[in-house]
Write a structure and sequence with these properties.
The protein has about 70 residues and is an all-alpha fold. Helices cover about 75% and strands about 0% of the residues. It comes from Niveispirillum lacus.
């Protein structure tokens, strides 16, 4: 799956969880951890490492949480 598609999907997840207020980033991280294939997770984290172009701030926060907690 292309990075552009993963960014779009991650941002959609982030937009949904943003409505939950301060816990939105955790909700997005938990969703990605639970429902994304490990290869998809690795690709979006690689994209983040390369600058994370296109990712919203909430998604960047969520991916940082995803990385720090197995």
């Amino acid at each position: 799956m292309s990075p552009d598609k993963l960014v779009m999907m991650a941002n959609q997840i982030g937009a949904f969880f943003a409505s939950q207020g301060p816990g939105g980033a955790k909700g997005a991280a938990d969703h990605i951890r639970s429902f994304w294939d490990p290869r998809m997770q690795a690709r979006i984290l690689d994209h983040l490492d390369k600058g994370g172009e296109g990712l919203t701030p909430l998604v960047v926060q969520a991916l940082s949480m995803l990385r720090s907690k197995p």
